[in-house]
TrEMBL record:
Entry keyword annotation includes Signal: yes
Domain of life: Eukaryota
Keywords recorded for this protein, A-Z: Signal
Residues annotated as signal peptide: 1-18
Gene3D superfamilies to which the protein is assigned, alphabetical: Proaerolysin, chain A, domain 3
Presence of keyword Signal: yes
Protein name: Uncharacterized protein
Amino acid sequence: MRCTSFFALVALAAATSAATISTVDKRKNVDRPDPANLDHCPGHATGDADTCTFESESQGADAVLEHIVGSPVDNCKGGTDDIKTTIGGDTSVAQTWKYGISAGFSADGGEELPVGVSFESSDTWSNTDAKTFRQNIDVTIQPGKKAALVAKVTHKTFFGRVRLNYGDPSGEPGANDYHYVWYANGVGSVQPTDQVTYDQRIVNCDQDI
């Protein structure tokens, strides 16, 4: 009796071990190179992740970034008279993303993700809508100069990571509810606010404005 019980326990342990290995192998059986790459997020180049969520780990200092409003006007046609005109119009400023950065990152530097990239909101951070700014001013532009209106917009900065969630496509039919969770660290959110001041910028015709 004891011998029979012993072999029964061994068989049960072996079966349990095999089931565990099978489950682990099944969950590992996912052909997804570089799963923490943000290209896997929905709407991005690969787009095979279920969701991508930005999780803020800290809020940085506010940053004032400059945006050209409307189109520049130049007096670069070889004339000798001043031009009195109006510059400005409107511009839309959306939130942007930086990656490969660390806490205290510069809002106007670093690598930027493509325009239009977005992630899900989380308990520590929320998406914000684009801000539209409208303004016009009268200026006098001397020969050999060009002018533009500049909106100096205050932005909020957040440092954190993006959580990538994947369904398990290797599970049994109807049981794809197991998720792999990966993290892309060193991601920054730069969000425009409604706080703005305007200024004119006048430079030589051969300079960037």
